[in-house]
Amino acid sequence: LAGTLWSHTATAVQKQKVELDKRLRSRLKEESSSVMTSILERWKGLAGYSRRDSMAAYLTIARQWSGFGCTLYEVDFYISSTGSFSQKLWLGVAASSVSLYKQGESEALESFPYGQICSYSVSDSNTFRITAGDRDLMFETTKLTEIIQLMNAYFSAIHCQRGKGEDPDFSITDTTEVGFRQLVPTPTPTLLELPSHPV
């Protein structure tokens, strides 16, 4: 009797699994068909466009993203200054700001224009800190050198624009202006020369 019940239960479980797999395959087929139909409709809308026009249309759409033009780096963002809890995020470094993105999401969780950044510094070979206003942000990443070099380049470009009397398309606060005046007599620091970068 026990063998019969076991056999019946195993058969029922196997049937349920087969039925579930069937439904899943059917649903995936429907979804992929729907996606393909949508892609084909969009593709048909580009009929008659040259390659250049298609690229221009693509860039017009891409420019609508708030993070367009930024370089994304995977970082561990430490919630507390003691490093007790971290969250994997993307750090977006752009010409006008540094932003934090949840991985896979298009909208920034937080954005810090360079005018709000008081300093950024290297803590060790994989850890760096950004001070923006009263916020102290700590990150860990394997791309530390790239991030610091890119931020140095953007701050240097801002410094050059201000020296030429050009008005960058973002605001610089008074406290940052003082920081820039302090940087005028010194050459742009590199990562190895100066591990802390007041701005």
From TrEMBL:
<dbReference type="Pfam" id="PF00373">
    <property type="entry name" value="FERM_M"/>
</dbReference>
<protein>
    <recommendedName>
        <fullName>FERM domain-containing protein</fullName>
    </recommendedName>
</protein>
<dbReference type="InterPro" id="IPR011993">
    <property type="entry name" value="PH-like_dom_sf"/>
</dbReference>
<feature type="domain" description="FERM">
    <location>
        <begin position="1"/>
        <end position="165"/>
    </location>
</feature>
<dbReference type="InterPro" id="IPR000299">
    <property type="entry name" value="FERM_domain"/>
</dbReference>
<dbReference type="InterPro" id="IPR002404">
    <property type="entry name" value="IRS_PTB"/>
</dbReference>
<dbReference type="InterPro" id="IPR019748">
    <property type="entry name" value="FERM_central"/>
</dbReference>
<dbReference type="InterPro" id="IPR014352">
    <property type="entry name" value="FERM/acyl-CoA-bd_prot_sf"/>
</dbReference>
<dbReference type="InterPro" id="IPR051724">
    <property type="entry name" value="Actin_motor_Myosin"/>
</dbReference>
<dbReference type="InterPro" id="IPR035963">
    <property type="entry name" value="FERM_2"/>
</dbReference>
<dbReference type="Pfam" id="PF02174">
    <property type="entry name" value="IRS"/>
</dbReference>
